[in-house]
Every structure is written in C-alpha cells, then in structure tokens.
Specification:
mainly alpha, 0% strand
C-alpha cells in the first residue's frame, strides 16, 4: 500500500516532466527564431530556425521514440519554406509557412469528415476515449480553428512589419492555440466514454 502511494506521485512527476520536455521540444525552435531574428534579422533567424527545428524533431524521436504528426508536417514546411526564403532571399516564403501548414491541417480534417472519418481519432485515439459524435465535433472545431489561424496569419504578415509578425507568431499563436485547446475540455468531458 505504501509502495503504491509513493509510486503514484513519482509517476505523476515523470508525466509532468515528459509533458514539459515535449513542450520545450516543440516551442524551443520558435523562441530561438524570435531571439535570432531580433538580433540578426529574418534571414539568420530563418536559417537557425530550420536547424533548431530539425534538431527538435531528432530530439523528439530520441526522447519519446516517435515524432508526432503535427510537428513533423510543420518541420518539413519549415525546411521547405525556410530553404526558399534563404535561397531566393525573400522573406515572404517563411511568412506564408504558417498559412500553408494550418490550411493543410484544416483541409485534412475537413476532408476526413467528408469521407466519414475523424483524423483526430486516429492521432489522439490512445489519449482520449470519445464517442463518435464527440470525435466529429472535436475534429470540426479544430478544422475551423486551423482555418482561422491560416486566415489570421495572412492578415498579419500582410499588414505589419517583419519583426511584428515574428512576435505575433511566437507570442500570439501559441497562447491562442492553448486557450482554444482548453476551451474544448467541456466537449471532451461531455463525450467521454467511461473506462467501465
């Protein structure tokens, strides 16, 4: 009994550490991008962003045994659009990368729903146990949110300076995404399938 009591806090602590490591691996490249852009400009920022993104994907594979789908797709786009930015010396490519990535995610989710499948269930089915209706609603909401992010990025990069866009990318997108994710807790609880 005492062993169980000490094991549960240790497991919770290990789980928290694991989640913090995942967050650091995913957010780290953005923070580095922001710092290097502020000190050396968008082209240096983009080059270092590409390198740190690749390093974070490798770290994710080594630490967690796999690379999650969303960071992988985003990482490929960082390398492709970052490469075009550096090769052509045109920062428009790195600025449209978030639009493309979010539009891809939205299209995949909407397409899955039209085909009668919830792609979120495929990705997160081991984490959440939801009814089919719950998966459909959650998928639709995330598809709409990704569409919103794509449109928002288009408005921002076309109307503000490069430095302001980088700040927006680092300090607005992540908090918006976290707030949206937290706002889905009610849906998750309402459509949760009990373990029994």
């Amino acid at each position: 009994m005492a062993d169980e009591a000490t094991t549960k806090p240790e497991e919770a602590s290990a789980g928290t550490r694991s989640q913090l490591l995942k967050l650091a691996v995913e957010v780290g490249p953005l923070v580095v991008f922001f710092i290097v852009n502020a000190r050396a400009g968008i082209f240096w920022g983009t080059g270092i962003f590409m390198l740190v993104t690749i390093a974070s994907l490798i770290a994710s594979r080594l630490m967690f045994g796999r690379i999650p789908v969303m960071p992988l797709v985003s990482g490929v786009c960082v390398v492709v659009f970052g490469g075009l930015t550096l090769w052509l010396q045109d920062d428009h490519f790195i600025k449209i990368k978030p639009t493309i990535v979010n539009a891809l995610f939205a299209t995949a989710l909407f397409g899955g729903l039209l085909a009668g499948h919830s792609l979120l269930k495929v990705v997160f089915g081991e984490v959440f146990r939801l009814t089919d209706d719950g998966w459909r609603k959650l998928t639709l909401r995330w598809a709409c949110f990704f569409t919103f992010l794509a449109l928002l990025n288009e408005v921002i990069w076309r109307t503000v300076s490069t430095d302001a866009w980088v700040s927006f990318k680092v300090f607005a997108i992540m908090p918006l995404t976290m707030v949206f994710a937290l706002s889905q807790i009610g849906l998750l609880k309402a459509h949760e399938i009990s373990a029994d």
